[in-house]
Every structure is written in structure tokens, then in C-alpha cells.
Amino acid sequence: MLNLLVSIKQVPDTTNIRINPETGTLIREGVPAVINPYDISALALACNLKKTYGGKITVITMGPPQARLALKEAIEYFADRIILLTDRRFAGADTLATSYTLAEAIKFLEKTDRPFDLYLFGKQAIDGDTAQVGPGVAARLNVPVITYTIKIEELDLEKRKIVVQRKTERGIEILSARLPVLLTCEKEAGHPVFSPLSAILQAQKAEPEVFGADGRIPYDLNRLGLKGSPTRVHRVYTPEIKKQGKMINLDEVGVEAAVEEIIKLFKAKGVL
Ligand SMILES: Cc1cc2nc3c(=O)[nH]c(=O)nc-3n(C[C@H](O)[C@H](O)[C@H](O)COP(=O)(O)OP(=O)(O)OC[C@H]3O[C@@H](n4cnc5c(N)ncnc54)[C@H](O)[C@@H]3O)c2cc1C
User: Fold this and answer.
1) How many Å lie between the centroid of ligand 1 and the Cα of residue 246?
2) Are both 125 and 69 inside the same structural domain?
3) Tell me: the pLDDT tens digits for 180-214?
């Protein structure tokens, strides 16, 4: 039976992130929070694997107390155990501190329960966009990582072997690894299906197990949150669009005149 770990992040429900120009931080007010879309694919993949092979899904997140809502939603994807890492000392974490916090919690879960076979992460979070947390956790757990996963081609639990398709700019790569392995998931990796009413009702009642920096997980406090984060975001801004495009309305000028106009423009720019 498979033992699956899915790591999810709650993010603002928009790809049009607004930044406070003075503080350089995200404006979260008035923006509803959702599960990061790539993490939904990871959850859907876990759900499919559980249906095929049987097993257990544990879902973890590090975030403010309201991140419990994302974990409750994960129950709709047949999660068996939901874990919230929340503490003021976790706040302000960069990818180094986030990876450390998650990895130490995962090690704790493995010590107190049993080791995971697969660790599923999103390929990136749509707010931070760094795509570093999955590989950062894999390094700390000392397991192989396959990024940009689009499909699991083969999973042999007896031989402890997995064959995975990953998307690259040049095409598809097919890689094999020994379990346990950490996969970061593209959208194609898993497609959510409608959850049965029983799962939705169960999700409403579910509450996560909560862990902080109180000593149960043996954290080095200097490696948590802002204190453990060497990265500083100095400035975040939307680049100014300096060049204006030229609009040619086909209905007004007709195709021939439009083509002539484009050729004229290209010649003026030295393109033709
Ligand atoms: C505008 C902006 C720029 C930033 N730039 C940087 C930067 O350059 N360097 C830097 O170190 N930090 C940066 N940060 C902070 C960064 O967002 C946080 O460190 C964040 O916790 C992790 O990075 P990420 O969101 O890019 O995650 P990614 O690495 O993109 O996330 C990949 C996957 O990791 C998992 N994951 C990520 N966060 C969590 C979590 N909290 N709990 C559970 N699973 C999680 C999810 O599965 C997710 O799909 C920036 C933040 C902002 C708002």
C-alpha cells in the first residue's frame, strides 16, 4: 500500500498579483485564498494513485491559521490525515526556511508513523513562483526529485521503481527512479473530478492536526521564518510597457490595405 505525502500552499485566488509598492509585500486584503492550482493537480494525482494501489494520503501545509481551510478542502480529495504547521516564528519564511520547516515536519511524521513512498508537490506556487520548495525539501530528505511531472507511466511497488514523464522546453523526458521520490507536478499530472457528497460533508467537519515551533518537532529556531531567511525582496514592480502596438482595424481598411500598411511598417523598421 502506498504512503503518499502531498504538500500544498494556500495562495491568493488570482494570477494578477497586486503588490504594495511601499512594503513590497502581497496585497491579500479582499483577495480570496485558494489551494495553489499545481497543488490541486498533485492532490488529484494522489487521489488516483490511492484508488489504483490503495494506501494513505497525508496533506501538509505551512501557513497562517486560515490555511486550515485549504487542508479541509484536501479531504475532498480523499486525504486521510491533514497537518497544519502554523506559528508566528514560521512567518516571513523564504524558500530556504520554508523547505527546512516542511522537511523537518515530514521527518517527524515519518519517525512517528511510517516512511512515505512518494512526496507530491506543485511545480511552483502562483504567488512566489520560485519553484524551489519541492527540490529544497527533497535535498533535505535526501531523496531524488523529478520536476515538471506530467504523468506516472509505471509504478512498481515491489521493485520500488517509478517511471515518470516530465515536460521540458525541448519535449518530454522519460525518467525512472527508485522510491521514495519527490515529484513536482504540472497541471497535466492530475485532473480533479467531482467529489462525492460524503467527502464534501466529511471535509466540512475535518480539522487538521496543528504543529508549531513548541518543541514537538525538533526545530532549530534560528532556521525558521524571517530569522532563518537570508533572501530579501528589495523591490517588486510591474515593468512599464514603453512600446505601443499599432492597431489596424480590418473592418475599416480591408485586408489589402492592412497588408500594405504592415509591409510599410516592417520596411520602416528595417525588418524587410
Ligand atoms: C513577490 C515575492 C517574491 C518572492 N521571491 C522570493 C525569492 O526570490 N526567494 C525566496 O526564497 N523567497 C521568495 N519569496 C517568498 C516565497 O514566496 C516564500 O518563501 C514561499 O514560502 C515559498 O516559495 P514559493 O511560494 O515560491 O513556492 P514554490 O517553490 O514556487 O512552491 C512549489 C511547491 O512547494 C510547495 N509549497 C510551497 N510553499 C509551501 C508551504 N508554505 N506549505 C506547503 N507547501 C508549500 C507547494 O507544493 C508548491 O506548489 C517571495 C515572495 C513574494 C511575495
Assistant:
1) 38
2) yes
3) 999 999 999 999 888 889 989 999 999 999 999 99
